[in-house]
Amino acid sequence: METWLPNFVDEVQRLLGYSPTTAAAYASDIRRFLAYLAQEGKEVPPTHPNADDVVGFLAHEVAAGRSRATVQRRMASLRVLERCLLLTHRIEKPFMPPEPLLEETLGQSRAPRPTTCLRSEDLQRLWQTLLASPKRQALRDLALMALLLEWGFPVSTLLELHLQHLDTERRTLWLPSPSGTMLSWKLENAFEPLKRYVEQGREGLSPKEGETHLFISQQGKPLSRQSVWHSLRRWGQKAGLDTPLTPRVLRATAAHRLLAHRVPLKTLGVALGHTNPLSTTLLVRRLRSSCGNTPPAELPTLDSPAE
Fold it and tell me: Is residue 260 predicted with pLDDT exceeding 90?
């Protein structure tokens, strides 16, 4: 990849406006493609990428048992590579296969897991469980869940926030968009849990001197994604939910409600951190298939959770 794009991650950000995290993920997928070519005894990197190599790589991923979502991500990464190589004049013509051939290959992959959405009663039980808990991290985790459920923000984005990103007077949160610009998001039911955490819960976690990250661990350091996953699972179990609680479930629940409230797809995609509109379209299809018969879950209020 070095002879193609010496600074691929930087180029993707500069030319196409992707975030550093997304660009790094694309680079990882492309390295997998190059490793496949090396395994097949082909030129690495190829002077002229071709459709046969792409189809062979995707078929290899399908045969390895990759999920449909993973194969779709590999396809998206190769499309990004193609765009960058064309924009930087390293290739003269596109190399991606025609869409029918890609769809045929994708159709052989493992079907995606059903998308699960929580119900209003599930959220009520969660709120009641966290509000009744004496644990120091309860207010923090309630604030995180509320943000995940109100707008479907990515966990990685929330963990990068600092105290100055919250405007308590205007009840808004400033987050970077996929293109890197800062956008303000109006908070409704998520505002009170977040405000209570900042005013009453954060100091109880003993933040290190000078630590300004919004969400911190019990050691006073920036909270990690792994800690969020573990905490969500434990709270879901404690609340007696039938569905394992994960960021994916909370974000799908948010998207289901936002769609029901007729939030534009573009706004939804930005909130979810999607850099490709196709990701939002595919999520909408999964939600309609899996959650279409379930009424969208509404967030409880902090002051008077539904009984």
Answer: yes
Query: Helices in 108-170 by DSSP H: which ranges?
Result: 120-132, 138-151, 155-159
Tokens representing residue 165 in the block = 């990103």
Q: Is position 1 within any domain?
A: no
What is the pTM assigned to this prediction?
0.69
Whether the Cβ atoms of residue 185 and residue 295 lie closer than 8 Å to each other: no
Residues 77, 141 within the same domain: no
For residue 31, the one-letter residue type is R
Average the pLDDT over each of 14-18, 252-256, 290-294 and give the range with the smallest value.
14-18
Q: Do the Cβ atoms of 89 and 212 come closer than 8 Å?
A: no
Q: Domain holding 252: CATH number?
A: 1.10.443.10
Return the sign of the alpha-carbon dihedral for residues 217, 219, 227, 141.
Answer: negative
Instruction: Name the packing angle between helices 20-39 and 68-87 (round to 10°).
Output: 100
Residue 52's domain comprises 8-107
Name the residue type at position 2: E
Say whether both 98 and 135 belong to one domain: no
Across 288-306, average pLDDT: 80
Which pLDDT belongs to residue 45?
84
pLDDT over threshold 90, residue 276: no
Q: How high is the mean pLDDT of the chain?
A: 89
What is the full DSSP assignment across 206-273?
-PPTT--BSSB-TTSSBPPHHHHHHHHHHHHHHTT-SSPP-HHHHHHHHHHHHHHTT--HHHHHHHHT
- List all residues 6 or more positions away from 22 whose beta carbon is below 8 Å from its beta carbon: 12, 178, 275
